[in-house]
Amino acid sequence: MLSRAACFPEIKSHVDSLPVVDCHDHAAERSRVTDIIAYVVRGYFSSDICAASSDADARFMTDASLPLEKRWPVFEKAWTRTLYTGYGLAARRAMQKVLGVSELTLDTASALQEKLPDFSDPAVYDPFYEEARIVARIANLWPAHKKILDGSWQLLPGQRIVIGLPAFHNFRNRADIQGFEESMDRTVTSLDDFLRLCRDIFSAYKAYGAVAFKDQSAYQRTLAYRNPPRSDAEAVFNRILADPRYSAEFDPDGSPLSDFLMHEFMRMARDMDLPVQIHTGHMAGIRNDVAKTNAAGLRSLLEIHRDVRFDLFHANWPYSGDLLFLVKNYPNVCADFCWANIIDPVYCRNMLVQAVSSVPHGKIHGFGSDVGGNQPDVAWAHCVIAKENISCALADLVDMDYISVDDAKRIASDWLFNNPNAFFRLGLKA
Ligand SMILES: [Zn+2]
Q: pTM of the predicted model, to two decimals?
C-alpha cells in the first residue's frame, strides 16, 4: 500500500530503517513445508480460503496424499476468490519473495513445489527476520513446563517467552490440571494448593526470562470476566478434585472458577511486575462468536487491576472505536496491532490515523507477526505490510497538516521499537 502524499518516500525510508520489536510470535521451532498448496494456504490464510470454499474443500485441497492435479481445481476456485484480503496479500508477497511469482497455475505449481525452501534450516529461516530488521520477538509458545523449569527449552534468535494463561484457568476436569502437577511433582488437594502451584510455575517462567503473561481465552469464552466470590470458584474446583470423572459444564459466558482464577492471576502479574497480553477481536478459523471477544468486555478487569499493565491485541478488529476508548480511558491499557496489519490492512491504516489524534502515541505497539515456525517469509511479508500501513497513516497525517515529517518519524520509531522495548522492559539499545 502506498500514499500519494509528497512526504511518503521520506517517511517510508525512515520506517524501513527502523529496528522492529515483533510483539507476538508463535514459532516454537523452524519447520519446512513440502506441498505447494499447503505452502500457499499456511497459517491464517487457511481461514479465508475456508470461508471462500468450505471445511471439506479446505481439507481436501491440503491433503498432500492426493495428487496435485486432483486437488488443483478446488484450490484454484477458492484462491481466486480470496486473493485480495490482507492474508491473501501477505501470502502473495511471501510467494513473490520465495518463488519469484505471485500467481500460480497448475502448469507452474509442480516446478515451484521443487523450489520450496527448507525453513527448518537456520541459514534459510533466520535471514527473513534479519531482513525485516526484527530484533526481538515476544514469543507465545507451548513448551513442556518441565523444560522451562530445568532451563532446557531452546528459544529462537531474539525470542523472549510469555506465560500462556488459558490452560491455567479455562479447564473443566481433573485431567486438565494433571500436567501442571506432574511438571512440579506435586499433588493438588485444594484451591490454595493449586494457586501456589501456579505461582511457582509462573515464577519459574520469570526466572527463565518471561517478559509477560498472555491470554487468548476469548476463543472459548467471553472477555467479560465477572468477579465472583471465592466460595463459588472453590465449590467448582473441589468438585473437579473430588471426582476425576466429573467435568464442569461448558459455559461461553465464563465460569466462577475461570473468572476467579483470572483475577488471582492478575494479582500475580502485579506482584511479579509482568504485563498481560490479551487476545481481543478477530479469531483464527471460522464459525466463532466475535461479540464475546470485543475488548470492551474487559472493562471491569482493567478497572479492578489498575496496577497491571495490559497490552490488548489485534487492534480489537473490527471494534476499533472500543479499543481507542479503553486506551484513552485507562492509564494501564495499551493497544497492540499484532496480526491486525494483515487481518485488514485498510482498517489498520485508518485506525492508526485516528489513534494519533485520539490516544497517546506512546501507548501503541505497531507490529506482531503472529506466525508459527514454518512461515518466516510470511512474517517478513507481514512486517513489510505493517511498515506500509504505518508509513501511509503517518504520511496522510502530515499531508493534512496535523503533524510534521519529524513528528511522523518520531511516532514510527516509538510504535515499532521504543514503546514495546520500554513496555516489555526488553532493555534493547536503540
Ligand atoms: Zn497469536
A: 0.97
